[in-house]
Amino acid sequence: MRTAVVYYSMSGNTASAAKKVAEGAGADLIEIKPEKAFPDKGFKKFLWGGKSAVMAETPKLIPYSFNPEQYDRIVIGFPVWASNVAPPIRTFAAENKEALRGKEIAAFACQGGSGAEKAFKKLLDCLGGDAFAATMILNDPGSQTEKDQAIASYLQKMHFT
């Protein structure tokens, strides 16, 4: 079963987790980036990112290489913004919704507070799915040991280990 890990990361937390998941799964790693970067510091980070997430915006993405026909399983990783999926992942979901039907989809979220469960539900709504094959929530800050254990358990749920 061929797997892709598709992710968006602003501060590097999701990128770090995505790389570990991809390594453990023997998966291709695909980073999604918006054409116009969100502010990543101070009040503007929370104002613009939160507004964009709450308003369910779908920013234009930098072209990425992803052919869904090459994969049986897709793992989607994202930071939680205001109990929502980060907007670049919302765009990815909208652009690939039909092509992802019938695929095994798993997801993981990195959060500094809470809201990942709501974000998973919203991502499922974007994809038109009923349930994920597996989900994982990583809390930041958190110990690296806890994160490594959570990733190992997540990979085991998806039958990679």
Can you characterise this structure?
The chain is an alpha/beta fold and 161 residues long. Helices cover 41% and strands 20% of the residues. It is built from five helices and six strands; from the N terminus they run βαβαββαβαβα. Strands 1, 2, 3, 4, 5 and 6 form a six-stranded mixed β-sheet that branches. α1 packs across α5. The chain is globular. The model has no long low-confidence stretch (mean pLDDT 86).
Beta strand %: 15-25%
Sheet/helix structural class: alpha/beta
Rounded average pLDDT: 86
Largest sheet: 6 strands, mixed
Shape assignment: globular
Give start-end ranges of low-pLDDT stretches. none
User: Number of helical segments?
Assistant: 5
Helical content band: 40-55%
| End-to-end CA span | 14 Å
Q: What's the count of strands?
A: 6
**Elements, N to C (H/E):** EHEHEEHEHEH
* Alpha carbon gyration radius: 14 Å
